[in-house]
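Objective 1b. Sequence-to-structure analysis of MFS transporter.
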Amino acid sequence: MSTNMSVSSPFIRLYVITFLFFSANPIINIVVPLRGEAEGASNTEIGIMMGAYMMTSMLFRPWAGNVVHRFGPLFVLRILLIANFVILVLYAQFSLEWYFVLRALQGITTAFFSLALQMGIVDTLPEKERSQGISLYLLAGMLPTVIGPIAALYLWDWGGMKAFASAMLIIGLAASIIGYHSPLPSRLISNDDMKPKSSMMAQLSQLWSNRAFLVCSMAMLIASAGFGAVVTFIVLYTQQSGVGNAGLYLMVQAGVIVLSRFALRKKVPSEGNWHAPLVIGLLLCLTVGIQLLAMSIHYGAALMYASAVLNGFGMALLYPTLMTYLTFVLPAASRNTLIGVFIAVSDFGVVLGNMAMGPIADHWSYSLMYSVCASMLLAAAGVVYVSGRRLNRY
């Protein structure tokens, strides 16, 4: 028997499925802004289209947690993989006006997928390996973004929408075939402590008095907003400024995330204690990274790629650190629902990065938009320092 379940054969298969499911996203994230600009869409309209994905994902996360608990991860995964295949095929058939709807539907499938996979991993692994399992799941989801942006730019330049359509068909089919026979459990662990003792609304009402959830969610919300703005507008920013290459930037950023999550997966705290200096340090890393991106228009591509490294490192460790901590301190009976809300908050941050930052770029500049994101992250680090120092496991 393996001494480390998180890297055993069944879990590696789960990571492969995760990689396939998320392979379409980095291509879509490049092609949609490029097609939108080519057809005369504004930054605000592009941001709304891109934000629809995270908006619906956010709204469905809490419900997804209850559904996964009721029907089991395996059943939920099989249904959504079929839906995901249909959605990806429709990207090539519909005009740009329909992309808001397709992105919204894709967000729903992602909500259920991530809850099914993460709750299956959390409930199956020993407590000391939770952070490793979550980190490897996140790593698998990020791997496509290492080569996806470069591949998307190549596909767009080489074959336009026809090449894009072929890529979506292949990715959707592969994910459906391989994922249908996933090693996920048919049911989550069920015992008296894990059975919900109240309605979903009653469970959600607990959040307002839970300091741990509020501090973690605030940090994740602002970090995701900054990161979402970077990913959504970096292509247009580099085209306008003439500095750097968006595909290379995203590849470096994703490569740092992947390497950091793999190399440091055993360093992410997995004992239920709050590590304020670590969280503050990661938020400051993102602050400096995004500010360097804002300054790169004046000081050159070197700052841009340094930004990619810092942003990648900060996001690589922030989410698994906060997520693992919450799996210990949230009430067991409502954990699935509340973790769903936390992931929804992360999604909402990306929505803000898409929808709220687009108008700033339209009326002022991309550089100012990124400086606003950096200022918000600095404020978040201050809030964690002031109010997040007494969050050790209850």
